[in-house]
Design goal:
About 45% of the residues lie in helices and about 15% in strands.
Length: about 250
């Protein structure tokens, strides 16, 4: 049976690594992107070049109408969803809490928290046996910042990821008897372009000495954990987290 996976924010970094790995594991892949059409198109092309099937759809996950359109288009073009990786997320330049305004905080929470809730909602409506679905899996890409707090840099981002952890735990219990498993992955310092969004492209290099393994991680290492949690090998695992952080 064809397995369909949606990966939000799948055009770059961890999302792109998840998309490419999922395709190699036999999934038909749908990725969403907010603005970088070229990057998303490249991921689709790479998957198709390897013999897989993929689709990229533009959508802002913080917008409920966009999320509903994303899932409806995926339904129409690919079929019933089997797995979701809630990966889309943003951060803003490093800043102490005392300087943050409501515009920044609300914009970040709208994408990182509301967007994940909306996508999880739509996934459950399609996967749950209560709605005639076959079951499935959801993996939320959190962050070690949810535990460490990211003081002096990204406390708002850390708080958004802590909310995502709470979503993971609560939803996992809510749908456990409906053949849906919900888990999370908490990446640490990973070599992706998101650090440039925070104003410090070289942040991983600066901080990797604080990592017990003394290096930053790679997107594929996060993808391996996410896809394992969706696999049959993790069939008795729900409401759980894998920290991919080199011990940090």
């Amino acid at each position: 049976m064809e397995k369909i996976i949606l990966i939000t924010g799948g055009g770059r970094g961890i999302g792109a690594a998840c998309a490419l790995l999922a395709a190699r594991q036999g999934y038909t892949v749908c990725i969403s992107y907010i603005a970088d059409e070229a990057a998303a198109t490249q991921v689709v092309a790479d998957i198709e070049r390897g013999g897989g099937k993929a689709l990229a759809i533009q959508a802002d996950v913080s917008d409920e109408v966009d999320v509903e359109r994303l899932f409806a288009q995926m339904d129409k073009q690919l079929g019933r969803l089997h797995a979701l990786i809630n990966n889309a997320g943003i951060l803003f330049p490093q800043m102490r809490v005392e300087r943050m305004d409501a515009v920044r905080i609300n914009r970040l929470l709208a994408t990182n928290v509301t967007g994940s809730f909306l996508c999880a909602r739509e996934a459950v409506r399609r996967m749950s046996t209560r709605h005639g679905g076959p079951g499935g899996g959801i993996v939320n890409i959190s962050s070690r910042a949810a535990v460490l707090g990211s003081p002096g840099e990204y406390v708002d981002y850390a708080a958004s990821k802590a909310a995502l952890d709470a979503l993971t735990i609560g939803l996992s219990k809510e749908v456990a008897n409906e053949k849906i498993r919900v888990n999370g992955v908490r990446p640490g310092l990973i070599h992706t372009a998101i650090h440039a969004s925070g104003g410090e492209p070289g942040r991983v290099s600066r901080l990797q000495s604080s990592v017990p393994m003394a290096r930053g991680g790679e997107p594929l290492e996060v993808a391996n954990a996410a896809l394992w949690l969706l696999s049959d090998e993790a069939s008795y695992t729900t409401g759980s987290f894998i920290d991919v952080s080199g011990g940090r």
